[in-house]
Amino acid sequence: MRKAYKYRLYPAKEQEEKIQLTLERCRLLDERRFAYETDKTTLNYYDQANMLNERKKYIPALKQVHSQVLQDVVKRLDKVFQAFFRRVKWNPIPCLSPKKQLGSILV
After folding, report:
1. What are phi and psi of 83, to 5 degrees?
2. Would you say residue 103 has pLDDT above 50?
3. 3-state SS of 33-96?
4. Is 106 helix (H, G, I), strand (E, B) or coil?
5. Model confidence pLDDT, tens digit, residues 43-102
6. Which end of the chain is more exposed for a tag (fewer CB within 10 A), N or C?
7. Whole-prediction pTM value?
């Protein structure tokens, strides 16, 4: 049996600012969505992970975030896109949430 524990953090003002800056810098990695919207090409995890060093050269703000954090963001982004395309393959009309949930929205 798996157990989950939930902890509430109370960061100091300085720590909270650093967390927010890290999150903002991680949002810069959403290159895959941009590539899909412009020319309908997809990037997988390995393509994006290999581009991290190159992107750190051109975007100095990414150097302040640990590489493991950036790799985890890219990995999560890859899982989200795989799930999206799997749902599109199953149902050509992409929906934001499963139909069984009340209040689901079809796009």
Report:
1. -65, -40
2. no
3. HHHHHHHCCCCCHHHHHHCHHHHHHHCHHHHHCCHHHHHHHHHHHHHHHHHHHHHHHHCCCCEC
4. strand
5. 788 888 888 888 888 888 888 888 899 999 888 888 888 887 787 777 766 555 555 544
6. N
7. 0.67
Q: Length of the chain, please? A: 107
Distance from CA of residue 42 to its chain's centroid? Answer: 14
Other C-beta atoms within 10 Å of 69: how many? Answer: 13
SS3 annotation, 14-34: HHHHHHHHHHHHHHHHCHHHH
3 burial via Cβ count (<10 Å: 0-12, 13-18, 19+): exposed
**Where does residue 29 rank: exposed (0-12), middle (13-18), buried (19+ CB within 10 A)?**
buried
Tokens at 30, concatenated: 């959403």
Torsion angles phi and psi, residue 95, rounded to 5: -120, 155
